[in-house]
Amino acid sequence: MKKKIRITFNAPLVLGFALLCTAVTIIRQTAGDGTDRFFATYASSWSDPMTYVRLFTHVIGHAGFAHLLGNMSYILLLGPMLEEKYGWKNLLAVMLVTAAVTGLVHNLFFPRIYLLGASGIVFAFILLTSFTSVKEGEIPLTFILVAVIYLGQQVWDGITVKDDISNLSHIIGGLVGGGAGWVLNFRENKKI
């Protein structure tokens, strides 16, 4: 007897985030940059409540489909494994902290430049992934290599390449992901 194959919604947080980012990108491409009021962060008055909202929502907006596909390919590749390992609440916390910290640092140091996209979250996921099989008292060599390769490249590109890519957001995202991996695994090892 043949077993039926079915499609499952295996990572609700990651899939929901990807769908939301896709919908916002479609709206942005058809409606223009008017969505930046909600889905891009930039320095504005701290008395404006939208300033605080944008610290979190800028990760949902993307400059175009190439930007979206680049970020979503990593998020859809790494996210389900992370959601299964750490749970959706912990992964959501990593995403929110990454969004807030990258948005805040960007607004303080680059107040005239708009920031949008989930690449900070991508780098958080990349570094967090290298902690998935860590044991107490160990630092995974994969974490060290990933940190050197990915973050080192961002530092180098930030110094030598002039483009519209926020290398600082990548670095901050990586630091948040690495820190989260350390904390979440330390907490997990304490339960054992």
Question: Could you provide a short overview of the structure?
Answer:
This protein is mainly alpha-helical and 192 residues long.
Radius of gyration, taken over Cα atoms and rounded to an integer in Å: 17 Å
CATH-wise, what's the superfamily?
A: Rhomboid-like
The name of the CATH architecture is Up-down Bundle
User: How many E strands?
Assistant: 0
The name of the CATH topology is Rhomboid-like fold
Share in helix: 55-70%
Q: Order of SSEs, N→C?
A: HHHHHHHH
Low-confidence segments: none
Strand content: under 5%
Q: Helix count, per DSSP?
A: 8
Number of domains: 1
The dominant shape is globular
Question: Mean pLDDT, rounded to whole units?
Answer: 88
Q: In this structure, how is the largest beta sheet organized?
A: none
Distance between the termini: 42 Å
Task: Provide tags for this entry.
0% strand; mainly alpha; 192 residues; Rhomboid-like fold; single chain
Word description of this protein:
The structure is a single chain. By secondary structure, the protein is mainly α. It has a single domain (12-191), classed as Rhomboid-like (Rhomboid-like fold, Up-down Bundle), CATH 1.20.1540. Helix content is 69%, strand content 0%. The chain is built from 8 helices and no strands. Helix 1 packs antiparallel against helix 4, helix 3 packs across helix 5 and helix 5 (88-109) runs antiparallel to helix 8. It is globular and about 50 Å long. The termini are far apart. The mean pLDDT is 88.
Topology:
Blueprint: H1 12-31, H2 36-39, H3 49-57, H4 65-86, H5 88-109, H6 119-129, H7 141-160, H8 167-191
Helix pairs in contact: 1-4, 3-5, 4-5, 4-6, 5-8, 6-7, 6-8, 7-8
